[in-house]
């Protein structure tokens, strides 16, 4: 696809504006420049926050039916322009056109769920007369929006993960400022386009493009911003928590996801599911299957089929329907993954397939016999690499699964309800998929992890809860 460099504008408080400097947006497939966006300054971010103060009041005063209408019209607009949105994702990110189309469809669903959840922000009555002396008191609580939300989003789902923050924020009556990933800002700007078309009042939404080290700290530390919703790496997440001060923080920080395959499982189904879970979006997915623990009695069969299926993966041009996997987001990231694999091999790991890089492309890679002292064994790979391990039984698989300092999601393949429930009880994760890979998710479920995988939960209903606070109302009755 030939892309004309139009020079995109950022969406500051409902207005499309330029900046004094630009950022080049490149296609990771060939490093070609596909467009430019403004490089916002710290002053731009301060101005944006000042405008968002008014936006928060406007958003809070919007009736629920108006919030619902705006969100639904935005969803309709995206659906009607699906190819445009998918092509943008597939051009600026690592995703193939098939993966990008799926993301657009999920974004539409995310927004429609957000519109529905707007009508479900409920409170409850409180029986104040449970305490002696309060027989003449009645009351309730309701939830109110917290104000301005700062959202910092990653490159790997450049549209839907933005929608996961914007949809609930608008549904719950908040203003929101989005700082999208520097390498994939175009999809987030397209989301702003949809909300502008839908008639969202000015100042409620901003999408500010720029470098994190220039505008991120302003967003994170400003006292008017009452919540930071961040999706990204642990190191950056920890820095944000130290800088943010007294405000709400929601963080999804990635994982090193384990999947257990027991001897009573459907091996073919487990192979198909885990191959997809390992290499979807070139493995640049917080839910990506990274470690597979296979019961030793079926190790050879599973390993043989897994490698065979991996070798069938079509790696190449993202824009072609036949392509299964494209490049990593930058050549630098591909080199990082290459170095991790080489370190593991030098320390004794066995390469079963893959292990080759060409620019930003890195072939789907399968390792076994990976020592514990390898970085790749304990940290998040965020690339198309999966590690296979042999285990004698379920208990050992659970023990090894829990050894790392992450706990987002996990999977287990078994036909035994007892074994499934044992894994559910003992695995230290935020979600466990039975007879599915760790990569499975729907947009309405609570999503988040334990340990270094994050704080709080996303998923529309649960994000709305994070983005609102309860206010207690109590009436003391004089004639009771």
TrEMBL record:
> Do you know which Gene3D superfamilies this protein is assigned to?
Aldehyde Dehydrogenase, Chain A, domain 1, Aldehyde Dehydrogenase, Chain A, domain 2
Q: Which domain of life is it from?
A: Bacteria
Which one of the record's GO molecular function terms can you name?
lactaldehyde dehydrogenase (NAD+) activity
Q: Where is the Aldehyde dehydrogenase domain?
A: 16-473
Pfam families named among the record's database cross-references: Aldedh (PF00171)
EC category? oxidoreductase
Keyword annotations: Oxidoreductase
InterPro entries, per the entry: Ald_DH/histidinol_DH, Ald_DH_C, Ald_DH_N, Aldehyde_DH_dom, ALDH-related_metabolic_enz
According to its UniProt record, the EC number is: 1.2.1.97
Question: What chemistry does it catalyse, as a reaction equation?
Answer: (2S)-3-sulfolactaldehyde + NAD(+) + H2O = (2S)-3-sulfolactate + NADH + 2 H(+)
What's the stated role of this polypeptide?
Answer: Part of the sulfo-TAL (or sulfo-SFT) pathway, a D-sulfoquinovose degradation pathway that produces sulfolactate (SL). Catalyzes the oxidation of 3-sulfolactaldehyde (SLA) to sulfolactate (SL).
- What family does the Swiss-Prot or TrEMBL record give for this protein? Belongs to the aldehyde dehydrogenase family.
Q: This chain belongs to which protein, by name?
A: 3-sulfolactaldehyde dehydrogenase
Provide the species name.
Answer: Paenisporosarcina antarctica
- Source species taxonomy: Bacteria, Bacillati, Bacillota, Bacilli, Bacillales
